User: Which sequence fits this backbone?
């Protein structure tokens, strides 16, 4: 979330600096580049969260199986 917020702030700063310079092509380029940076930052964050969730579920599945092997009823696990 912090990386995404930082990317958005950087994009808006670049756009406002381009507008202050009065260069329309630079404004368009700043918006396009900033949008790509924000998109790929969010995409990377989603990948990290998905990997973390997968690892957590795999770990919990192993613990659950170990308790079941010991004979603990499913309702108590």
Assistant:
């Amino acid at each position: 979330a912090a990386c995404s917020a930082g990317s958005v702030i950087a994009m808006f700063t670049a756009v406002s600096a381009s507008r202050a310079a009065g260069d329309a092509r630079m404004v368009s380029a700043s918006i396009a580049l900033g949008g790509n940076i924000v998109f790929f930052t969010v995409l990377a964050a989603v990948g990290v969260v998905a990997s973390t969730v997968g690892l957590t579920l795999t770990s919990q599945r192993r613990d659950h199986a170990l308790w079941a092997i010991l004979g603990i009823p499913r309702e108590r696990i």
Observations:
- Residues 13 and 31 are 10 Å apart (CA to CA).
- The radius of gyration is 23 Å.
- The chain has a mean pLDDT of 87.
